[in-house]
Amino acid sequence: ILNVEQSPQSLHVQEGDSTNFTCSFPSSNFYALHWYRWETAKSPEALFVMTLNGDEKKKGRISATLNTKEGYSYLYIKGSQPEDSATYLCAFGDHSSASKIIFGSGTRLSIRP
Amino acid sequence: EAGVVQSPRYKIIEKKQPVAFWCNPISGHNTLYWYRQNLGQGPELLIRYENEEAVDDSQLPKDRFSAERLKGVDSTLKIQPAELGDSAVYLCASSLRPDTSLAKNIQYFGAGTRLSVL
Question: pLDDT tens, B73-104?
Answer without folding.
Answer: 999 999 999 999 999 999 999 998 766 555 55
